[in-house]
Amino acid sequence: MNGGLIAAPVPPARAYDLALVDLDGVAYRGHEPIEHASDGLTAARDAGMRLVFVTNNASREPESVADQLSGLGIPTTPGEVMTAAQAAAQLLRSRLESGARVLVVGGAGLRTAVRQAGFEVVESADDEPAAVAQGFAPEVGWTQLAEAAYAIERGAWHVASNLDLSLPTARGFAPGNGSLVGAVRAATGVAPDSAGKPSPTMYHMAVERAGARQALVVGDRLDTDLAGARSGGFVGLHVLTGVSSARDDVLAHPGERPHLIGADLRALHETHPAPELGGDGWWTCREAAARVVDGRLELGRGGSTSGVDPLDQVRAACAAAWAAVDGGDELDASSVPELGPSAV
């Protein structure tokens, strides 16, 4: 698949039959709705696009997630929710026999998924679990992390639902499951296996469940949502409503780059132009222009970006930066300003 930005002359809601939509930072932020999320997703369904909400959050059960989305004006059934807890349980089944003991460190969603996968849930390392399944929950504390460390030191297999270091909330960014997993890893020296994004496992599970022909990944984090899209062979749409910024897009590693960029979920209903390289060395996207000279990003011929669509400027900057880096040049990160609609 193309390693750069691609053109979408037809709005994604009409070009793809399934959207794999992240939750935190895309559909909502904590318990608060994100502007245009409800309207954007409702209109996508009206256009014939099916939705599956794919989340690295393993603390809640699909029924709870569906209820929250429905309460925010996004009617959702539990069958339209795919959680990292479900993916972790599937990963456990790849190595453990049915009935094996699993120490669960996390919330109700993870405990339910592990039980439904045929395992016995235990809470102490003294129960001699074959594995430790670790997922985020607000109530997880030192006692649970210590039990996980004891079990892993005794040979239990460590499976993390995800490795997200941060979690977007209405008040800001809080420590995510990856931060808690890091404490256990620091204590044991054992690196866990992870079922969550950026592994594309959940995406493939969701596509198989839906029987989709062509799926689009929609997310706010480059290191999880969009990296999972790249590794799974899916087109990824980055919406600028959560963790990763437009500047992050420009500086993104090849395996984390989006294919499409939008301000919010209205991007499902917009066409997306692709940047083009001109003979003068400038990458252009409609009226926007960017190039890299001596390792520094330059925006706008003559240094002016007045009247330019901010998203087109992001697209042109991405194309210029990615081409330079992929060609072996070093890009001075200090030359990359904040970009996108929020920077205007």
From TrEMBL:
Q: Which residues cross the membrane?
A: none
Q: Which SUPFAM superfamilies match?
A: HAD-like
Q: Which Pfam families match?
A: Hydrolase_6, Hydrolase_like
Instruction: Tell me where on the tree of life, at the top rank, the source sits.
Output: Bacteria
- Cite the GO molecular-function annotations of the record: phosphatase activity
Might you report a single GO cellular component term? Answer: cytoplasm
The name of this protein is Haloacid dehalogenase
